[in-house]
Amino acid sequence: MRVVVGVSGGIAAYKVAHLVRFFKELGHSVKVIPTQTSLNFVGAATWEALSGQPVSTSVFDAVDEVQHVRIGQEADLIVIAPATADIVARIAAGRTDDLLTATVLTATCPIVVAPAMHTEMWNNPATAANVATLRARGFHVMDPAVGRLTGKDSGAGRLPEPQDIGAFALDIVGRTKDLAGMHVVISAGGTREPLDPVRYLGNHSSGLQGTSLARAALERGARVTLVAASMTAPVPGNVTVVPAGSALELRERMLELKQDADVIIMTAAVADFRPAHYADAKIKKADGSDELTISLVKNPDILKELTSARRESGQIIVGFAAETGDSQGDVLYHGRNKALRKGADLLVVNEVGEAKGFGTADNSVVILDNEGEPLGETSGTKLEVAHAILDQVARIAAR
Ligand code: PMT
What we know:
- This protein folds into two domains: 2-173, Flavin prenyltransferase-like (Rossmann fold); 183-397, CoaB-like (Rossmann fold).
- Helices cover 33% and strands 24% of the residues.
- The protein is built from 13 helices and 19 strands.
- The chain has helices spanning 16-25, 44-51, 67-74, 85-92, 99-106, 119-123, 125-136, 162-174, 208-219, 247-257, 302-308, 331-342, 382-397; strands spanning 2-7, 29-34, 77-83, 111-115, 140-141, 145-148, 154-158, 183-188, 193-196, 199-201, 223-228, 240-243, 263-266, 273-275, 296-298, 316-323, 346-351, 362-368, 374-381.
- The strands form five sheets. The protein has an eight-stranded mixed β-sheet, sandwiched between helices. A five-stranded parallel β-sheet has the order 2-1-3-4-5, with helices on both faces. A two-stranded antiparallel sheet has the order 6-7.
- The chain binds ligand PMT.
- The site of ligand PMT has 27 residues, from helix 9, helix 11 and strand 16.
- Ligand PMT binds at residues 205-210, 247, 266-270, 272, 299, 301-303, 319-322, 350, 352, 357-359, 382.
């Protein structure tokens, strides 16, 4: 495996010598890319001796080899350790002002970020927002360890131990290929049900859970098609995107794709109802009336349709259930009933509400089997939740 170790300018850079050795001893090829400032802490000679490869910091070294593009394109894994607040900010902003940031911007492999900085910097809203951006884009950002920092202070911000970073990174790469050769079709985002040329009924889905599933499936070797309703989350590269506006359009696209799909995941928040009539012209305020009544008709249940007309040879179908508890029962009670009604192999139940599920960076789900029995409970970033779901998909596929 070709591992790139990016080193930014923090005192913990000296510990990364052990990380380079960790990967080398496992037989991996390691390319170290330090930032210019990090060389104040550990010099290029150390990295060259440990990795056995030349070291440069600038896009203007070995220009004939087009290093700033090639290293990222060829990497199987990138680990940035220590990741300072500055490198996190530069990557979040998409900058390419040195070899490390250019490499990150051209890479399609998993990227692990191991932050190390003072607690105040880690807790600063600017850093928190940059970390959230990276996580939303699929970077695997570790939480820093808590303990002694550079000076007399201690707290959150210490670089995790090199063997923990190595194990975390290998865990991510090790699970990547269990969906190799499979075509995974994922619906994501919220449908928009048009009312007139300028208005629609919609919902708050950002599409992040769906794009995280797309990213996780890519990491595990699958070919991925994303049927994208309205969404704000960025779509990873190498995903085929098929746009779909309304529930009826999403249904059409899913039915077109279903025959060629080994795995179908219905993450999209599909409107259960749509306006019965579409007004060709913008609806005007009627004189003398303070009310407007909109009639709604039921949309087809796409998930039910997909499970009822499954492809003959082994197709795995995963549904989601966005639930709130009510007087009839709790979230899980409604989730179980939905699992039995929908006929999917897996139903992922998430509690939704204000600041829960829709539009958030994290999710908390219970995965049910086709009989509504819980297989596991997972909380974390939407990418972590995505991998937990795909663990179950891979388990079924391996049967
Ligand atoms: O996009 P994010 O901001 O990241 O938020 C993620 C999410 C909360 C939208 C996602 O995790 C989620 O829960 N998606 C499903 C939302 C939903 O529509 O739930 P539901 O309980 O109404 O529908 C159950 C299942 O049937 C879903 O798989 C849905 O895609 C499907 N469905 C629903 C209605 C319909 N007419 N046809 C369908 O196929």
